[in-house]
Structures are given as C-alpha cells and as structure tokens.
C-alpha cells in the first residue's frame, strides 16, 4: 500500500492490522495519533466518526455559530429533563469532525488552577498529577505569542509557557484576541472596583483576576487540533492511516490464559459495512466524555445491571462507567446599556454586517475573529473562600438563547459559572444500538451547595455592574430582572436561564484501585473488574481511555487544554513502553 499523501490521507478501511488504534480524531485523539505515528516501525490508525475538517465555518472563529447544532460538525445531543433546570432540556454540543470539540468550541486557552491537579494526585494516589509535574506537559506543545520576539514577554514568563523556538514542539498556538470593546473594558474596571484584581495571564496556577482571554487562533483563524497535530505531519507519514465517517461500534476483548482480558481491536461501521480492525499493541479510546462511556458500555464494560437492562451482555462489571458526569453550568445575565456600541446593533444592519465582513477579509480582525467570549474573570462567590470558584465569560452582545437572533438593543452578557460543582450526573446507553444517542443527565443544580453558589454569583454580578466604571453606560438588568431578590427566587431563576458551557468531564474517571467508582488507574488504563477489598486490581491489557472523561474532578476553567495535557502524558507513557 502506498503512503498517504499530505493532501489526501486514506479514508477507507483499506487495511485492518495496526500496532495502535486511536478512536476519535478530536482534541486528545489528534495529539495521540501524532505522537504514536512518530514511533519508528509502528502502524497507527486514527478513526473519526465525523468528516474531515474542510468545512469553512470551522476555521472562521465566529463560525461556531454555524457549527453548533449542525449535523455536519455536531453530534446534536440533548440532555434529559433536569429538575434543577425546572424540567428543561439543553442542547449538548460535541464535535463530530476532525479536531472534535476543538473545531467548534470557544477557543479559550485555559489550564485551570494548581489545586485542581493536587486534588487529582490525592484522588489517584499518584503525585505525578500535581501541578509542578503537569506544567511541562502543557508547555511541551505550546506556542505562545508573547515569546515570538525576544524581550517581548515579561521577565520569567518562559518558566510558565512554551514556544516552538524554545524547546517546545510548538503545535498548539496561543494568541491574544484581535479586538477590544469599550463596554468590556468598562466591565473589567468595574470588576476591579469590586475587588477582582487585574490579570494578564490566567495560566500560572492561580487564575484569579479579570482580563481578556487568550485564544487558540493563528492570524485570525481558528487553530484546531487537526491543523496542529495531524496536518501536515501525520498526513505525510507512511505508517499513518485515517478513517473518517467511520463510527466505532464496540471494542473487542479477548480472555487470556490467566483469566485477564486484553483489548485486541474494534468493530467499525464505515457507512456501508462493519469492519474489524486489529491492534497488536494498544487501543486508545479518545471519544470524549460522552462517546467513550457509550462505547465501553456497548462493549459490555460498565455497571452490570444497567447493561443487562439495556440488552448488552456484561463482560466487565465497572460501576463507574458513565457515572460522575460533571459540567460547568453558566448563568447568563443580560444588561441593557446606553451610549456604547455592542455587537447587537452593529450586526443588526446590512451596513454593519458589510463592515464586519470587510474588516475580517482585510485584517482577520473584528467580530468575525471573535471567540464566543472575550473577557474573563475568576473570583470568589464569597470572601471567606481560599480560591476562586467562579468564572465569568463576558460578551458585548445578548440574545434570548444560543442560536437565536441578537437583541435589537445594545446590551452585554455576563455569564457566570460555578467552577467546582458538587452535582453529579450520568451518561448511559439506552439500548444495544451503537447509532442511538445515549441518555445524558448532568443533574445540574441538584445540590444545596450548587444552588447557593448560583444565588451568590447572581448577587456578585449585580455588585460588579453597580460599580462606577459602568455607570456612564446606565446598565439596566434585563435578565433575570431586578424584581427577583430572594434566595429562592434567584435559585429558581438560575434554573430557568442557565445553560451548559460545554465542559463535560469525569465519566470514566481515574482513581485508586480501592475506589469502587474508579474506571481507570492513574496511567489511564482500564480496570479489569470492580474493586474488591483485599485483592489486587488488574487492568485490561492493550486499552487506555484518554480524554476529559478521565478527569476525576473538573478543572477550574475551560477543559480543552487540560485534555491535551493528559494526552501528552499518555503518549509519553505509551512511547516509553514501546
């Protein structure tokens, strides 16, 4: 078989024998495919259920508006009705294309807080997950704009960030945004007046502060993981094969002489036939926090009673598969303003739209280069907390719901989310069919603590907006409305207006061997059965799960870059074993 060209890597199931099979060409899968195909003499197959990332709206930053809710790029999931959301269901976007969620997400580069990784180390019993140990893995593939020119970055900046000219492999580009808004500058000043310090770097382990987000873009274009890690490197390697529009139906398990299990490959639906692909060394499941537990359960790996009830024969009883779902729920508050431009009025006229398009065409800047959120703030819902537990995404626009038209009046949106929710949900198959979406039940606002944080965050938002820096724009609360003041009313209103910020994690969590809900060990290998007191716990040979589902607890910020860090670590472990 001839080597796939950089322009057209193989997409059909031409050969079926490989050393490594990577399931999912998204955030983690693209990096895994890059690192594994760099191993000499190892044949690597990358399987992606979606199509190639050749849809133009993937690459224009504002194109997320046309990718989310679009079957070309999105799995089109919906959540189950949630009591905490007053019976509502939510759209639950997940990327279905090369690059996965990095092709449709908000492009925000965010690592979280050092304490997140200390908690992971405690929960797994593995100190290598602490911040000091994972920081080099973030830096390994980072290409930060402040290090482009010698002397441009502040003193000591290079100890926190990587660059392609300073030892980093440099695939993951991080840039400053190519726009600013007066109303966002005023919000940042108001936040400082309310006690939130200014920040010009959210990624040094303590992200408390307010400032503009840095984004995964390159010269005004979205920078997804397909561009970063697959193109052109992997496409030019003779040992790399790519199948797109190919959905993994289940994993193949083999019982060995000592009674242990080994994953030997996958069954894949190509759209016309079911193909078996064999992996002589390892299958790496990178299908995400929704897709990975679904594939495991369809393969007979998960809570035995649930699988039997859904028509699947249990092979490995792992109660934690599909459990422990965590997500960031954002409460979208909207304030009308006077005497300042917002995107609402700019984009609601033909002349305004023409100017926006012209600016992007000529400069790759302006509203078409916008991430969904431009200004960020991390702060505390109450002053006695030791760390920031809230994140704001502030936008110079407003609308009734995602996908709806912009309002005709000038306004800004201040979305606030609880960084460390205590609510836990589930992802479970509904039946034995691989092409049936699973039941996704995040159980938002199901704990007293989460409801109180929601109330406190709404009150804090009002306090920020009431500061002098915003007074010249006469902010008027449009949503939820100043008529709601009591805790009970605010908690109920949070359920009415809150939406996901698209950060599901935890559904195949790593943990200690004696944790009955742990699915993976600290090196992301799947446990071969439930925890039994006093007995050693084996892992399934030849199988790892490497995606955000492996996080035992959610990071304090956007989850895309922490997922890349986890993939970088797993790739190094596999390479060392090879």
Automatic annotation (TrEMBL):
It comes from the Bacteria. SUPFAM superfamilies: FAD-linked reductases, C-terminal domain, FAD/NAD(P)-binding domain. Gene3D superfamilies: FAD/NAD(P)-binding domain, Glucose Oxidase, domain 3. Residues 288-302 form the Glucose-methanol-choline oxidoreductase N-terminal domain. The keyword rRNA-binding does not apply. The keyword Ribonucleoprotein does not apply. InterPro entries: FAD/NAD-bd_sf, GMC_OxRdtase, GMC_OxRdtase_N, GMC_OxRtase_C. Signal peptide: none annotated. Keywords: FAD, Flavoprotein. It holds the Pfam family GMC_oxred_C. Its cofactor is FAD. Belongs to the GMC oxidoreductase family. This is GMC family oxidoreductase. It comes from Curvibacter cyanobacteriorum.
């Amino acid at each position: 078989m001839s080597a796939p060209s950089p322009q057209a890597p193989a997409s059909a199931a031409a050969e079926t024998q490989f050393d490594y099979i990577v399931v999912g060409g998204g955030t983690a899968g693209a990096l895994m495919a890059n690192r594994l195909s760099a191993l000499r003499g190892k044949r690597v197959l990358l399987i992606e259920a979606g199509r190639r990332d050749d849809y133009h709206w993937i690459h224009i930053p504002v194109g997320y508006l046309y990718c989310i809710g679009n079957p070309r790029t999105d799995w089109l999931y919906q959540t189950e009705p949630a009591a905490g959301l007053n019976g509502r269901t939510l759209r639950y976007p997940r990327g279905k294309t090369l690059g996965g969620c990095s092709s449709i997400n908000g492009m925000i580069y965010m690592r979280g807080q050092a304490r997140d990784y200390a908690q992971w180390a405690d929960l797994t019993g593995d100190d290598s997950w602490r911040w000091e140990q994972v920081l080099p893995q973030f830096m390994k593939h980072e290409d930060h704009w402040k290090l482009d020119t010698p002397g441009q970055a502040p003193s000591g900046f290079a100890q926190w960030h990587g660059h392609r000219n300073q030892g980093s492999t440099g695939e993951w580009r991080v840039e400053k945004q190519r726009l600013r808004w007066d109303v966002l500058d005023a919000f940042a000043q108001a936040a400082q007046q309310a006690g939130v310090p200014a920040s010009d770097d959210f990624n040094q382990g303590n992200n408390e502060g307010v400032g503009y987000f840095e984004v995964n873009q390159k010269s005004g274009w979205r920078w997804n993981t397909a561009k970063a890690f697959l193109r052109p490197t992997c496409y030019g390697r003779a040992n790399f094969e790519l199948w797109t529009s190919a959905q993994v139906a289940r994993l193949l398990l083999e019982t060995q002489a000592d009674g242990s299990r080994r994953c030997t490959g996958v069954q894949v639906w190509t759209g016309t036939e079911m193909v078996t692909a064999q992996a002589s060394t390892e299958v790496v499941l990178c299908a995400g926090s929704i897709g990975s537990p679904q594939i495991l359960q369809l393969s007979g790996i998960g809570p035995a009673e649930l699988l039997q009830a859904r028509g699947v024969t249990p092979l490995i009883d792992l109660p934690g598969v599909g459990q422990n779902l965590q997500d960031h729920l954002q409460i979208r508050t909207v304030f009308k303003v006077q005497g300042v431009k917002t995107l609402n009025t700019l984009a609601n006229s033909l002349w305004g739209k023409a100017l926006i398009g012209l600016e992007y065409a000529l400069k790759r800047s302006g509203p078409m280069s916008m991430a969904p959120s431009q200004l960020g703030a991390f702060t505390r819902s109450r002053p006695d907390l030791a760390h920031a537990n809230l994140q704001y995404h502030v936008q110079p626009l407003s609308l009734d719901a995602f996908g709806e038209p912009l309002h005709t009046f000038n306004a800004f949106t201040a979305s606030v989310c609880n960084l460390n929710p205590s609510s836990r949900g589930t992802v479970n198959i509904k039946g034995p069919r691989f092409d049936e979406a699973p039941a996704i039940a995040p159980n938002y606002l199901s704990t007293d603590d989460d409801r109180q944080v929601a109330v406190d965050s709404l009150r804090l938002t009002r306090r920020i907006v009431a500061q002098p820096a915003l007074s010249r724009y006469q902010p008027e609360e449009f949503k939820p409305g100043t008529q709601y003041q009591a805790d009970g009313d605010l908690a109920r209103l949070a359920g009415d207006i809150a939406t996901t910020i698209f950060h599901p994690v935890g559904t195949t969590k790593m943990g200690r061997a004696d944790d009955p809900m742990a699915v993976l060990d600290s090196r992301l290998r799947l446990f071969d059965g439930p925890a039994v007191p006093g007995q050693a716990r084996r892992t399934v040979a030849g199988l790892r799960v490497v995606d955000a589902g492996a996080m035992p607890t959610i990071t304090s910020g956007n989850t895309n870059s922490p997922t890349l860090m986890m993939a970088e670590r797993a790739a190094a472990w596999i390479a060392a074993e090879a």
